[in-house]
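Fold this sequence, please.
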Amino acid sequence: MNGIFPIEIRKFVEARLGEQAWPEIVRSAEVRPRLYVPVADYPDQEIAALLSAVSARTGDPIPVILEAMGEFIVPDLISMVPTFIRPGWKTLDMIANTEEAIHEVLRHAGTNTNPPKLMCRWAGSHEVVVTYTSPRKMCTLAKGIIRGIAKYYGEQVAITEPTCMLRGDAACQLHVTVI
């Protein structure tokens, strides 16, 4: 997984639990302490161990942590890709264009980064349907990012999920409606 993700886990932990919590999370996860850098890739197992340690520390299930973290990281994510975001975009525009504007760029950036595959289609002027597939099954992170994007743009969204990989479906389908 790209180094941005463990960097954001650390920021999330420190914001929620205090700076002293990060070394404790690393110890609990039984991963070697290191400085994560955004241009490197790290094993998925290491990320999973860190998330498990956060879950054990907070008592929240990993999907709850991922959703909260998704919302938390949006300002950082947007600041990393300002040239890919068109003026005038709002929540649904950003979501509908994430695959082509950001994920495809990441896939071709020369790292082993494997962001989820998103297929988006407009289902009216106030709704986008996102089909999410990833072997990591982090659809709750995607839901948090969607909520964070809406917050960034000063909008509110309703998200329904008729299919979910966590429930055994082949893909997650997220219906995102601006309310």
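The CA atoms of residues 159 and 176 lie 5 Å apart. Strands lie at 117-122, 127-133, 157-163, 172-178.
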